[in-house]
Amino acid sequence: MTTVHLPPPALSRSPFSVVDEITRHCLDPTEPETVHIEVHLPEPPHPDRLRTAFLDALRRHPRILMREAPGPWYRRRYEWELTAHPDTDHVVTFHEPGPDALPRARARALSQAPPLSLSPPVRLEAIGNVLVLVVNHTALDGPACLRILATAAELYGGRDNSPAGGGTPARPENHPQLQPAGVGLAPVARVAHGAPVAPGNGMLIADLPVPRRPRSAPYTVNDQLMVATARMISEWNRERGTPPRPLRITMPVDDRPRGLDMPIGNGTRLVEVPFREEELAEETGRLLRRTADRTRALKSLPRPQLGHGAALLTAPVVPVAVRAALTRQLRRAVAPWTSTTLLSNIGRVPYPLDFGEGVGRATAVWFSAPARMPRGLTVTTASTNGRLHLALRWSGALLGPQDGEHLRELFEKHLNSTAEEGSSP
Prior knowledge:
Elements: E1 13-15, H1 18-25, E2 34-40, H2 47-60, E3 66-68, E4 79-82, E5 92-95, H3 101-111, E6 122-127, E7 130-136, H4 142-157, E8 201-209, H5 221-239, E9 247-253, E10 269-275, H6 284-300, H7 308-313, H8 320-333, E11 341-348, E12 364-368, E13 377-384, E14 387-395, H9 401-423
Parallel strand pairs: 5-6, 9-11, 11-13
Antiparallel strand pairs: 1-4, 2-7, 2-12, 3-4, 6-7, 8-14, 9-10, 13-14
Helix pairs in contact: 2-4, 5-6, 5-9
């Protein structure tokens, strides 16, 4: 009898999205494209149970079990190759708690991206009662990986971790009279240089009260955060004698459902909220209402994830290597018009992240987004238990740790000014 050796079944593949491809083109080894998610729990989870629950959660969301497929230089697309199991035994690791353990884990989160060549492009580090999830942002975003953590919590503790409020964010209706006003074609403000110390990213996290606002206010906490961010940068630049320029703040918008059917990947679309310098000097209440009109209109407008230009740039007409070179050249050319900063507000964390008896539910959740130049600074917020968890992340080519401390002071000052407005009749 002749033995017939059949080839292994072909692995399922899917093309990179527009966001995936643009990010892949512009990777810089000195500033890894990582998302850091940090979850604090009342008690440390059991190592074996946590590893089992997290790996099972990956299988419940198979789109996360993927790696970049190899291909020739002349291919027209990058592709993800889906795998049945992780490629490495080090998806979940455990570290002894100590005074330097968590700072070291945070430093790794900013400097060591999970490789795209191994499935999955994430890693989970447990340091006592703190979980640090590190995500390669070329493949996945923060909200998608938070969904994975919620599934892992449910599998670990057996408690319902369904999202609050039905699990699908409401999309604002578009109102023609609320079309946002732009800031023209002039170059936008950059964050003024401070005292840069080293390559890579630095980060500061803080725990603040969620700002007050009247129940009937026409603006949201997100609008208060937007105003605080714009005024923080404006004052920072004035202190350094930078000529006034309009600001644009990039804001991710996520319309995906939050349940088990949530699409996993880079699913947010980016909009840019403009501010003229004279607007930032307005009375706070008026600025909040103006910002609310603007963000509501921007959220409601149909738009590709990175705009029509990016969709055209990633069309598979020429080899991907050619598009990569063109993308990098364009990125350098348009740097003066790149938005001033990015504000990513997760809002109230939609899942309880309850790991059950003996561990409990999350008491704090921090996120941080990459802060490559030319922006060089990102502001990320989330809230749990009435507290606002703020992460400032910056490029070491732009700012240093003391600069981060001062920016936090400015942010807190201007956020408090919105709360004072919110507490007035």
